[in-house]
Amino acid sequence: MRSSKILAGASAGVLLALSGGAQAAVVQDTFQVTANVIASCAVTAQDMDFGDFDGSAILTTTSTISVTCTDDHPYAVALDAGSAAGSTIANRLLTNGSDTLAYNLYKEVAHSNIWGDTIADDLNDLGTGLTTPVIHTVFGELPIVGNENASTGLYSSTITVTVTY
């Protein structure tokens, strides 16, 4: 009986020693985290007011278009001919009933490049991020020529700004 007690004690000691030095099993894996940034743009435009026209001087004024687009994403800004019947990109019109005033919108202060709605006359730029708008100035000109016989009254038109991105 004594030998079985010694053997049981020795076995318990061996098991205790083994259990203290046993390592836990570990397995691992990985996973990817992704996000796809898609293009996004927003646009706001200020009204343009030529003020009072008496036919004695060319009137010029400006408006601004604020475009906010995803950083480094290209976009194009187009301006249509306006809401006045008979308006074209080359000859925009303000109306007061059936009376009209000719004017136009340009990309630069020199008034040499009409801002229109085709690839050739859009304004192209790159976004600077969704918190940093890019400001584009629209230069308007209401000439004397063609407007000498205008009737009194308030003339208007609505321009649609389109941002393609």
Count of helical stretches: 1
Report Rg: 37 Å
| Secondary-structure element string | HEEEEEEEE
Q: Could you say what the CATH architecture is?
A: Sandwich
Poorly predicted parts: none
Distance between the termini: 92 Å
Would you write up a description of this structure?
By secondary structure, the chain is mostly beta strands. It has one domain: Fimbrial-type adhesion domain (Immunoglobulin-like). It has one helix and eight strands, in the order αββββββββ. The strands form two sheets. It has a five-stranded antiparallel beta sheet with strand order 1-2-7-5-4, with no helix packed on it. A three-stranded antiparallel beta sheet has the order 6-3-8, with no helix packed on it. Strand 4 (92-96) and strand 5 form a beta hairpin. The longest helix is centred in the N-terminal third of the chain and has 20 residues, at 2-21.
Question: How is this structure best summarized?
Answer:
This protein has one helix and eight strands; from the N terminus they run H-E-E-E-E-E-E-E-E. It has one helix at residues 2-21; strands at residues 41-45, 59-69, 74-79, 92-96, 99-106, 123-126, 134-142, 161-164. The strands form two sheets. Strands 1-2-7-5-4 form a five-stranded antiparallel beta sheet, with no helix packed on it. A three-stranded antiparallel beta sheet has the order 6-3-8, with no helix packed on it.
